[in-house]
Amino acid sequence: xxxxxxxxxxxxxxxxxxxxxxxxxxxxxxxxxxxxxxxxxxxxxxxxxxxxxxxxxxxxxxxxxxxxxxxxxxxxxxxxxxxxxxxxxxxxxxxxxxxxxxxxxxxxxxxxxxxxxxxxxxxxxxxxxxxxxxxxxxxxxxxxxxxxxxxxxxxxxxxxxxxxxxxxxxxxxxxxxxxxxxxxxxxxxxxxxxxxxxxxxxxxxxxxxxxxxxxxxxxxxxxxxxxxxxxxxxxxxxxxxxxxxxxxxxxxxxxxxxxxxxxxxxxxxxxxxxxxxxxxxxxxxxxxxxxxxxxxxxxxxxxxxxxxxxxxxxxxxxxxxxxxxxxxxxxxxxxxxxxxxxxxxxxxxxxxxxxxxxxxxxxxxxxxxxxxxxxxxxxxxxxxxxxxxxxxxxxxxxxxxxxx
Length: 404
Ligand SMILES: Cc1ncc(COP(=O)(O)O)c(C=O)c1O
Fold this sequence. Notes:
Bound molecules: pyridoxal-5'-phosphate
CATH class of the largest domain: Alpha Beta
Order of helices and strands: HEHHEHEHEEHEHEHEEHHHHHEEEHEEEH
Oligomer: single chain
CATH topology of the largest domain: Aspartate Aminotransferase, domain 2
Number of strands: 15
Number of helices: 15
Distance between the termini: 57 Å
CATH superfamily of the largest domain: Type I PLP-dependent aspartate aminotransferase-like (Major domain)
CATH architecture of the largest domain: 3-Layer(aba) Sandwich
Strand content: 15-25%
Number of domains: 2
Strand order of the largest sheet: 2-9-8-7-6-3-4-5
């Protein structure tokens, strides 16, 4: 008899960013309470406006997007992405290697579906944005977490990566800059990962959605630039750099002088064709957005919101006894640690519930990112500086109630 239940794989799939604490926050809002929701990296929710260049172009040209477009995407958008990724140093790519998707989310699903069989393993950073673990679970694969080391600026621990490789390991995921830690990886680390991937014949999935949101003028290196010999899929999009999360505009670029790249490209064509095409209206604005570098630069420069908001949070954490944090170098997240010798925190989820109930501030517990020491949480540094300052004060105040 047919098993009349949902698929077993569903039980592994979850997102704490929109998990039980989030639903509790929604309930509180229904009851008329005001909650500061620091759970999602969604700039528009905090008053970030779209670039004027993008808005004007879209209004004038939207009629050009009514039909299905090419399965990879619209040619001007594919060309603009190809050009952008070449300026990042990715070699030997053409528009045939670019696949525009409904966000990096869909691109990640597509890449994992194209590569990973049920029972195969993918190395995933811990802590990690849950898209990647979930994408692997969706195809019946096994995510295997490797440690990023807080003591070493949250860089991936190369020895740990190597120790987790088995005969079933197919790929390694890196997120650079990282969500939730805000770490930017130095070239030595990328080269170390490339060496491991080379030795063990692994594909590298490099999620670079925050590459234009690097602070303090630090340089960002695309993984594919330093590993032209390896099969690499580079992911990027406009959700964060242009504050357009709702547009669902992302892409994957395949590189590497390998036979596997050609095979993967064919698999991507198959998967892209069954979903017809990606949202066409949003592809119209890709060339304009990628040309408008000033918009993003302004946000990350002194005086710009992302720069100043990071400053507010970092300063506030220094003033909170028993809270510490590695300084964010890219993206708009940080991942502070609570000193559990000084505070009664035995469950990070309970801490998140408690903060929500006491201060009406929603954060995501570290365990929501596969980090299981029960003493970390993620802050989304997107509210205006004054509101963030107040929220940080309230967090500190709540922590004091847990003092041992
Ligand atoms: C590391 C990372 N990758 C991918 C995504 C999803 O991006 P998109 O909006 O393009 O689907 C996010 C969203 O927060 C993210 O943090």
